Fold:
Amino acid sequence: MFALFFVILLAATALAAVGVLADSGLRWWSAFGRLRRDLKNGNVRALPSLRPVIAGGGHTAFDRSAAGRAAKGTINCAA
Structure:
């Protein structure tokens, strides 16, 4: 009886894992399909411009704000 319960539990777990992986795969497929389509149509704004900025504590981060663009690629570190 326990073996039957254990097999059913394993099958349900495997089914849930397959469902989650399939959902993630479809989301990635859709995102890359949209990216390919945007780049093919000449929409260069499809890629975000990420510029490296030094955050507090000396850890490197990426910033999309105007402050990152104002630095024009230079990194100012106030220690």
User: Anything to note?
Assistant: The mean pLDDT is 74. The beta strands are 51-54, 60-63.
